[in-house]
Amino acid sequence: MKILVCVTSVPDTTTKITFTDNNTKLNKAGVQYITGPYDDYALARAVELKEQQGATITVLNVGEADAEPVIRKCLAIGADDAIRVNAEPTDAYFVAENIAAIAKENNYDLILMGRESIDYNGGQVHGIVGELLGMPSISPVMRLDLDGDTAKIVREIEGGHEDLEAKLPLVLGCQEPIAEWKIPNMRGIMTARTKPLKVVQPVSQETLTSVAAYEMPAPRGACKMIPADQAETLIQLLRTEAKVI
Amino acid sequence: MSVLIFAELDEGKLRKSSQEAIYYGAKVAEMMGTSATAIVLGEADESELATAGRFGAKKVLHAGNARLNEANGMAYATVVAEAANQEGAEVIVLAKSALGDAMAARLAGKLKAGLAANVVDLPELSNGFRVKRSIYTSKAFAFTELKAGKKILAIKKNTIEPQETDATASVESFQPMLNDSDFVLKVTSTEKATGDVLLPDADLVVSAGRGLKGPENWGLVEDLAKALGAATACSKPVSDLDWRPHHEHVGQTGIKISPNLYIAAGISGAIQHLAGVNSSKVIVVINKDPEAPFFKSADYGIVGDVFEILPRLTKAAQAL
């Protein structure tokens, strides 16, 4: 079984986002980068499958050199080798095209990634990869079990969930509770240093979208405090002042 | 050249988020000097489809094949791609949703279209095609240029408030080619709450956290939600503890919502929770801890015991 896990390197969820250069660049000063939280679930499930039934896991990142600590961490958690496509991942189609190009050469049984990256939140890359490879894509996947070449999957839908069965190969966008996040141990960290990390150039330079500028949301006004003994006033204010009910 | 809107049904009715998407698409069509066509898949009542006209669609393409009754992103993308080609659609609009995401990504792959998700405003057309979209889980916005000939816009809830008219849309039967390869996923069972407003579509949301102390107290949340006509939601710890199902979890790793009103009871307001809800128009926080960080991001706050406050709010809401 060959599993490809695609990961993003993204600002930690607690990061206070700011921009520089006249709002055209993310201010990276002091930003801690982490593996995309959803990608971490995908990787954790891949490592579980490897432990349960044997598999080789390749980690793939479309990103610049500063993503390498995140890639090394994925190797420490249990991936066998890694590929980095040396490019800035700003456009979903561009990222998907590069993932698909690598997948075409390697015949993976499973291509796993997070349901979305937490920087651009598009949730599109798995679907585009599936389309470009002619494989089914399923997201968000909360459970994945394998029975031979059949995957049994629980997918979240709005207001509930559904159980699915599908034949491999598949592209899956993962989320909790598919697996528990894994923390690398010392042995993993040591071996990760010597695991292969191949850097390749993107298959094209063309992007279909680009960001011209960023903007911060307008700050909310001060919070109007209502004394607990006058709680009912809130309902009146929501009707007459906020006009939302 | 035209604008095509992918509209979804829920229990036979056009989803509220799709009504917004139709209205948005009609506005874009107006800006581009063209007309807006909606497409609906699966068996549906023709009179319901004609209501798309109230939101600005001139025409509805109805792919009423029963094989399309099941929400299937792959098959839907095939159908919408054929419709987009037939209509010469340059812009395809949809509401951000579970099915919409699945369809739009496959469609972008088929059409090699530029795709912008979480769009929060009408496009700027004076110099290319530029949209404003929400990024970093609502912590910021990006002005994004769509450079491809075909463009797909997935709009976020509450991007636009539809002004309804009494127009009706003409409904045309659409008979697309279906590929068997799009029907390879076998759904063995589905569990879905019925009768309730879907959380991503809800205008009003009442949510609670660990401050409720246990699932047995959720009646307090449900009562207030019922009195207001709101949907219920919960924080991540509550879903992790299995007090409530995962599909009610709002926050960074759950559902992102942008309702008109979000009431948070017994939720302290960790940054990961705020990320999922901070584009709500009005936020109310009820917490016994006056230092709860959520008050800093709220419009209205009450420091007090949720077990006492929630029933009083329910009573006041019932009296409206």
UniProtKB/TrEMBL annotation, chain A:
Residue ranges of coiled coil: none
Keywords in alphabetical order: Electron transport, Transport
Pfam families: ETF (PF01012)
SUPFAM superfamilies according to UniProt: Adenine nucleotide alpha hydrolases-like
Hydrolase among keywords: no
Lineage top rank: taxon: Bacteria
Positions of the Electron transfer flavoprotein alpha/beta-subunit N-terminal domain: 23-209
Key word Transcription present: no
SMART domains according to UniProt: ETF
Protein family (similarity comment): Belongs to the ETF beta-subunit/FixA family.
Protein name per its UniProtKB record: Electron transfer flavoprotein subunit beta
Species the sequence originates in: Nibrella saemangeumensis
Lineage, opening ranks: Bacteria, Pseudomonadati, Bacteroidota, Cytophagia, Cytophagales
From TrEMBL, chain B:
Protein name as catalogued: Electron transfer flavoprotein subunit alpha/FixB family protein
SMART domains per UniProt: ETF
Keyword annotations of the record: Electron transport, Transport
Highest taxon, organism lineage: Bacteria
Coiled-coil intervals: none
Organism per entry: Nibrella saemangeumensis
SUPFAM superfamilies the UniProt entry points to: Adenine nucleotide alpha hydrolases-like (SSF52402), DHS-like NAD/FAD-binding domain (SSF52467)
InterPro entries given in the database record: DHS-like_NAD/FAD-binding_dom, ETF_a/b_N, ETF_a/FixB, ETF_asu_C, Rossmann-like_a/b/a_fold
Electron transfer flavoprotein alpha/beta-subunit N-terminal domain boundaries: 3-187
Assigned protein family: Belongs to the ETF alpha-subunit/FixB family.
